[in-house]
Amino acid sequence: MSVTIELPGSTMMTPQECGENPKNYKKQVQVLSIKAYDAKAKKSSFKKEKIEYRTRKCIPAYQSINMTEEAYEYMISSLCPEWYAPMGGINKWKKLPIKERLQLHLDRTCKSLGGISYTYVVFGE
Predict the structure, then answer these.
(1) Whole-Å CA distances, 79 to 66, 92, 103
(2) What is the C-alpha separation between 121 and 51, in angstroms, rounded?
């Protein structure tokens, strides 16, 4: 089985990358806003000003993990993992479909690596 996890990147998109496809502008630029107060104004007449600025988003990084057949077999087995027992119990785990068991394990793997999302391919299916 192969799992590809999307991680937040640390390299910003270049201005050229953002300008290449104007249709994807919202996906490439992040709009942030802050509220600023005039410190010199009297308390009764605070002037609130909203400042918006745009920053380029970062290019995501991808990490691929190849898992052995034994790891795959464990993930889909009816053996309830200790982290799931308090949430739903052993009987609920056994009733889950194989695909859902696998996705619960992969969700935990993705979150533990700080990932945003993941895709997977099971070989031999």
Answers:
(1) 22, 11, 15
(2) 45
